[in-house]
Design a protein that fits this description.
The chain has 286 residues and is α/β, with parallel strands linked by helices. It folds into three domains: 5-90 and 181-211, 3-Layer(aba) Sandwich (D-Maltodextrin-Binding Protein, domain 2), CATH 3.40.190.10; 93-180, D-Maltodextrin-Binding Protein, domain 2, CATH 3.40.190.10; 214-280, Alpha-Beta Plaits, CATH 3.30.70. It has helices at 16-25, 56-62, 72-78, 121-130, 164-168, 192-212, 226-231, 261-271, and strands spanning 5-10, 38-41, 46-51, 67-71, 82-87, 93-100, 115-118, 136-139, 155-160, 171-180, 182-187, 214-222, 240-243, 249-257, 274-280. The strands form three sheets. It has a six-stranded mixed β-sheet. It has a five-stranded mixed β-sheet with strand order 8-7-9-6-10. A four-stranded antiparallel β-sheet has the order 13-14-12-15. Strand 2 (38-41) and strand 3 (46-51) form a beta hairpin. It starts with a strand and ends in a 6-residue tail after the last strand.
Length: 286
């Protein structure tokens, strides 16, 4: 491979900011400069390209870029033959079938012979075909939720996160087509050097993703309280226990779930722990 390794990130939309933040946390330092659609990371000799999210799966499958961040829904819709390396933990949503909340349709079978509007026509058509239903898909870009109100369709197939948009537009979900989240993908025909870069990038990114849900907990415990303190810790593995220079005390270190910290501090203190310190973790390889 004579050119730099190419990594594509979404140029805008819901995946842009978290993808850029993740890349920087993984050491791919890039400056977003005005309307520039590319930047270079000298540390890894990586060229970062900013592209339309819908175009990224096809670019990766065709070999225009070597790796990319893309939503799984976009990968499926493009029928892109790529290797999915690491689920990234953001951009979580579901592609769902929704119909007017006040209508009589309660299940997808009732849409047989009808029409649905969607920005994911390939995925929607495959779903209804698998259900044995003859449903016409109406491709629409933007404001898909308006289609039933305008009598342009009997329902929609659209991405849903919280469901607020559906409710605000008088719609309700009746089926899930697929679950989606942002994913690090790579083209399948990488040569030796590019494959090594992709593997290293995947390892570092996976370590950043794994670290985000964890915290490093440090504390001191009197010897007589040590067993009680350790019993409270639900760490990844057995906690690290080290004797301190001052007799009668041990240091205890553990990696715990971030969401568990608030529930742990008071019981640990009551059990005899002191000098408690909770630290964020930048990288974690389980």
């Amino acid at each position: 491979m004579t050119r730099p390794f190419r990594l594509a990130l979404p140029s805008k939309g819901r995946l842009h900011a978290p993808a850029l933040e993740l890349a920087r946390a993984a050491g791919v330092e890039v400056d977003v400069n005005g309307r520039a659609l590319h930047a270079h990371c000298s540390r890894w000799d990586i060229e970062v390209l900013f592209a339309r999210a819908d175009d990224i799966p096809a670019w990766t499958a065709d070999g225009a870029v070597d790796a990319a961040v893309a939503g799984r829904d976009q990968i499926v819709e493009a029928a892109a033959e790529v290797d999915e390396l690491v689920p990234l933990g953001f951009g979580r949503c579901a592609l769902e079938v929704a119909v007017p909340a006040a209508g009589a349709i309660a299940e997808v079978g009732a849409l047989d012979g009808g029409r649905v509007a969607t920005a994911h026509p390939r995925t929607a058509a495959a779903f209804f075909a698998a259900e044995g239903l003859a449903v016409e898909t109406v491709p629409i870009r933007g404001s898909v939720e308006l289609a039933p109100r305008l009598d342009a369709a009997d329902g929609i197939v659209d991405l849903v996160s919280s469901g607020d948009t559906l409710r605000q537009n008088g719609l309700r979900s009746i089926a899930t087509v697929l679950e989606s989240e942002a994913t690090l993908v790579a083209r399948r025909d990488l040569d030796g050097r590019a494959r090594a870069v992709a593997a290293e990038l995947a390892t570092v990114i996976e370590s950043v993703v794994a670290a985000r849900g964890k915290r490093y907990l440090m504390l001191n415990a009197p010897d007589e309280s040590l067993d009680d303190v350790i019993a409270l810790l639900p760490g990844m593995d057995s906690p690290t226990v080290l004797p301190l220079a001052r007799g009668g005390l041990h240091a205890v270190h553990a990696v715990v779930d971030a969401e568990a910290v608030a529930d742990l501090l008071a019981p640990l203190q009551a059990a005899g722990a002191r000098s408690l310190l909770v630290l964020p973790i930048q990288n974690l390889i389980p």
